Every structure is written in structure tokens, then in C-alpha cells.
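fyi for ur records
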Amino acid sequence: MKHDSVVQIAEAQLVSGLLASDAIVRERVVGICGIPSDAIDLQCVPLVDVPAPPDNNGDVDILLFTPKCPDRVTAVEAKRVVIPSTAIRNGVAYKLEELKKGVKQANKLARIGFHQVYLYIFVVVDSREQNAGTNSLAGAPREIDGQVESEISKRLHELEPRVGLYACHLIQPVDSEPFYEDSFLGRLHRPASPVQQPTALTDWVDRQCRRHVG
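which gave:
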């Protein structure tokens, strides 16, 4: 293969690459319920000084908001499921266990009090070997898709009721660069339910904006 496999892209780099991609791809990532079309994104924002209970370790994978409305921020926890050619041959998706960790972190973001919280699941598929150089856009086989959908359904019920869940399938079906628009499929399993954000948290968001955006 000429190009690197999409499954080799680390989680943070995957998120960064999608958000920095062309307008169509970016819109498919952030253009969902309650997120302004002109939202800016901050990535990997530490929670160390957030006004919240003492378990505020870790970070927010994506903060989405407009500087004029720091009280309406969307906090996103992102997790990745990878399906390389070996997984397709073996009939088993990899990293499904990461979704349990994603649920725990997304629920924590909801307890902190962000206006809107989402768990994003990126299902990353390298189906180049399976498609054998044909002009096919086929992703993972039905058996593996069923495993992934079953796990997503299970984790959906473990999320706090107000936390939304969005699954993005990123497929590399032919030997080309990742992130081209025909390889992206998004499904909103549940929209987030917004709440009134605490004033202290809004002040924290405003500080993050000034620190990272200027």
C-alpha cells in the first residue's frame, strides 16, 4: 500500500485531523444538534482547574463554543474503535473496551455541568485489503458492524440521560489518504439535552478561550 492506514492515526491526531479538514468533513463532525455553525474548537483541554468535584483529572477532548456565548459550550469525549485488515480477517473489532472508559468520562463532564455533553465514537476501518483494489467503498463486514452496534447500544444505556452519542464511521476502502468525504458516515444515536451551565464554569470556559484563542 502507498498510504498509511487510517487505523494508525492516534486518537488525538484523528480528532485534530478531522477538525482541520475541509469544510464538508468538519461539518459532519461538529454540525449536529445544539452546536453553532461558527463554533471554534479547543482540543485536549485539561480539567485540572475546572470548578468541579475533586475528581477533575483528565481533559476535555473537544470544547465547542462561540466566544460570545461561553455559557453554551459543548464538551465532547472522543473514543476510537479500530478495525484494521487483521480485525476483518479475524472477525473481531479492536478497542471496544475503550467505550466503557468513554462513558465514564462523558458522565463526568455532565456532572461538572457543561451546557451540553456528547460522547463521540470514531469507528475507524481499513478495508483496503478486503476490497482488493476494486473501486468499492465497502467498510467492515456485517458481522463486525453488528459487534460495534451492539456495544454502542449497550454503552448508550450507561450514559447519563442528558449525554448525547454520535458515532462516526471513518472508512479507508481504497489506497488513498484518509479523511476524504465519501469515506465518512455519521449517525446521531441520541442528541444531547442542554442544561443551564454554572456561572463559575462559564468563567472557566471564558478563560480557556482567552488563553488558547486570544
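The first helix runs from residue 11 to 19. thats all i got for now
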